[in-house]
Automatic annotation (TrEMBL):
Annotated localization: Cell membrane; Membrane
Designated gene of the protein: mgtE
PANTHER family in alphabetical order: MAGNESIUM TRANSPORTER MGTE
GO molecular function: magnesium ion transmembrane transporter activity; metal ion binding
The name this protein goes by in its record: Magnesium transporter MgtE
Organism per entry: Pollutimonas nitritireducens
GO cellular component: a single term: plasma membrane
Length: 493
C-alpha cells in the first residue's frame, strides 16, 4: 500500500502514510503470479506464429513491456521484507525475472532480508557492478552476513571503499563462526565517558544525524573502551541535565562474549526483556552490540531448523530442482525405510501367532502408534528444554523418572480404553489384558527414549532434533510389535 495523496481543496492535498500489512504482500504475490501466467500465454501464442511475422513479434514485445511495468509498479511499492517474501515464493526463473525489475535502491535491503537459499539464486543473476552497487553502502556487519554468498572479487572491491576501521570490523565479523554472537553483532552504537554531564551527552546526541537502530541505551566506557556501565535514554531524558553520567548510569548489566552461542544470547534477551546488549572481548573492551532485531531472526531461524531437523531435513528451496531435493530428503528416508523393515522383520517372527489370532494384526498398530505419540510428546518438551538450557547432567535422570511417572499414569487410563476396545471387537479378556500391558510398556519405552535420545545427541555435540523422531519411531514400532506379539505368544497360544 503506497502513500496516497487525497485532494481536499484546489491546491491542497494530504498524504496518507503507507501502512505496513503482510496481507499486502500476499495480494501482491497473487497479482504477480497472474501477470506471469499471462506473460506465459502471450509467449506461447507468439511462438505459434511464424518467426518472420513482424506484427506478432511487435505485439509480444509491447505486451512484455506492459507486464514488466505492471510488475515494477507492484514490487517497488512494497517494503523490502515483503519483496523478499514474494521472491522466496516464486520458482527460480520467475524469481530472477522479477528480481531484475526491483529498483536498485531496494537491492541491499532485499538481499539482507531474503533467506539464504533464495539469496544464492538472486546473486547469481546479478552482474559484477550491480553487486558492488548493492553492497558498497552496507555496514561492515551487513557485508559479513552476505560474504559467504558473494564472489571473492566483489568482496575485495567493496573492501577498497571502506575506511580502515570499517575494514577491520568486516574482517573481525567474518572471522567469527556461524551461530555465534560475533557473527550477528553490529558495530554501530553510542558511547560516552562517565565524567561528563547529561547535558553534554544530550548535545552530543543532537549532533548525530540519527541514532543507530534499536538504541535504548548508551554505553559508558573509559579511555581504553572498557565497558563501565549503561545509560538508558529514559534516564537521560528525565534526570537533571547537570548530573554526571557516573551518578545515574547502571552498573549491573548483561554483557555477551563474541564466541557465545547466538541461541544463548536469544535466551538472555527473552529472560531479561532486553532491547540491546553490549559485546565485550576478553579484556572487557566494548567491541559491538546485539539488538532485538538480530535476536528475533535467530529465534525464527532456530525454530525453523528445529522443525525441519525432527524430520531429518535441512532448509531447501521449495522450487529447487528435483535432484537437489532428493539429496536433502533421501538420507533420512532411507534410514526410515531400514528401521521400518526391521519393525516388519520383528512382526514376521510371530507369523504363527498372528495367523491363529488374526485380530492381533489389527491391534498391534495401535500399540506401536500410541507409543510413538507418547514419545513425541516427551521429546518435544525435552528438545525445547535443551534449547533454553534447562536440562543439565544433574537433572537428566530426574526428568526420565518424571516422564516415566507421567506416562504410566496417562498410559494406565488410556490402556483401559484400548483394552475395552480390544475386548469389544475380539470378545476375549485375555487379548484385552495383553493389549493393556503392551500399551503401557510401549508408552514407557517411548517416554524414556523421548528423553534420552535428544539428551544423548546433545551430549555428543549433535543437533538434538535432527532425525530424533525417526529414531523414536523405529524403537516404538519394533519394540511395540515385539512386546505385544511376544505377550500374545506367551499367554494366548
Amino acid at each position: 500500500m503506497s502513500d496516497t495523496p487525497v485532494k481536499l481543496e484546489e491546491g491542497e492535498a494530504i498524504v496518507i502514510p503507507r501502512r505496513l500489512d503482510p496481507e499486502d504482500a500476499q495480494l501482491a504475490l497473487q497479482q504477480l503470479q497472474s501477470i506471469l501466467r499471462r506473460q506465459e500465454v502471450v509467449e506461447a501464442l507468439a511462438h505459434r506464429q511464424y518467426e518472420e511475422d513482424d506484427r506478432s513479434n511487435l505485439l509480444e514485445g509491447l505486451l512484455h513491456r506492459q507486464h514488466e511495468n505492471e510488475i515494477k509498479s507492484i514490487v517497488n511499492d512494497l517494503h523490502p521484507s515483503d519483496i523478499a517474501f514474494i521472491l522466496e515464493s516464486l520458482p527460480v526463473n520467475e524469481r530472477q525475472a522479477v528480481w531484475q525489475l526491483v529498483s536498485a535502491e531496494h537491492d541491499a535491503d532485499v538481499l539482507l532480508e531474503v533467506d539464504d537459499w533464495a539469496r544464492e539464486s538472486l546473486i547469481q543473476s546479478m552482474d559484477h557492478q550491480d553487486l558492488i552497487a548493492a553492497t558498497e553502502h552496507m555496514d561492515a556487519d551487513e557485508i559479513a552476513d552476505l560474504a559467504a554468498d558473494l564472489p571473492a572479487d566483489v568482496i575485495a572491491e567493496v573492501q577498497k571503499g571502506l575506511t580502515d576501521e570499517e575494514r577491520a570490523q568486516l574482517i573481525e565479523a567474518m572471522g567469527y563462526p556461524e551461530d555465534t554472537v560475533g557473527a550477528i553483532m553490529d558495530f554501530e552504537m553510542v558511547r560516552v565517558r562517565e565524567d561528563v554531564s547529561l547535558e553534554v551527552v544530550l548535545r552530543y546526541l543532537r549532533r548525530l544525524h540519527e541514532l543507530p537502530d534499536h538504541t535504548d541505551q548508551i554505553f559508558v566506557v573509559d579511555r581504553q573502551d572498557k565497558l563501565q556501565g549503561t545509560l538508558s535514554l529514559s534516564t537521560l531524558l528525565v534526570r537533571e541535565p547537570d548530573m554526571l553520567v557516573s551518578d545515574v548510569m547502571v552498573t549491573e548489566y548483561l554483557t555477551l562474549s563474541p564466541l557465545d552461542s547466538d541461541a544463548d544470547a536469544a535466551g538472555a534477551f527473552e529472560r531479561y526483556d532486553l532491547v540491546s546488549a553490549g559485546v565485550v572481548d576478553d579484556q572487557g573492551r566494548l567491541i559491538g552490540r546485539v539488538t532485538i532485531a538480530e535476536v528475533v531472526d535467530v529465534i525464527q531461524e532456530d525454530s525453523q531448523e528445529q522443525a525441519l531437523s525432527r524430520a531429518g531435513l535441512q532448509e531447501e528451496d521449495i522450487f529447487a530442482p528435483v535432484l537437489s531435493a532428493l539429496r536433502n530428503r533421501a538420507p533420512w528416508l532411507f534410514v526410515n525405510l531400514c528401521t521400518a523393515s526391521i519393525a516388519s522383520l520383528v512382526a514376521s517372527r510371530f507369523e504363527d501367532t498372528v495367523s491363529q489370532i488374526v485380530i492381533l494384526a489389527f491391534l498391534m498398530s495401535i500399540v506401536a502408534g500410541i507409543g510413538g505419540n507418547s514419545g513425541n510428546q516427551t521429546m518435544t518438551m525435552i528438545i525445547r528444554a535443551l534449547a533454553v538450557g534447562r536440562v543439565t547432567s544433574s537433572n537428566a535422570w530426574r526428568l526420565v523418572k518424571r516422564e516415566l511417572t507421567v506416562t504410566f499414569m496417562v498410559g494406565a487410563c488410556g490402556s483401559l480404553v484400548a483394552a475395552s476396545f480390544a475386548w469389544a471387537i475380539s470378545g476375549s479378556l485375555a487379548i484385552a489384558a495383553v493389549m493393556m500391558v503392551a500399551m503401557i510398556c510401549n508408552m514407557l519405552i517411548g517416554a524414556a527414549l523421548g528423553v534420552l535420545i535428544p539428551i544423548l545427541r546433545d551430549r555428543f555435540g549433535k543437533d538434538p532434533a535432527m532425525g530424533s523422531s525417526v529414531l523414536l519411531t523405529f524403537a516404538t514400532d519394533s519394540l511395540g510389535f515385539l512386546i505385544f506379539l511376544g505377550l500374545a505368544t506367551l499367554f494366548l497360544m
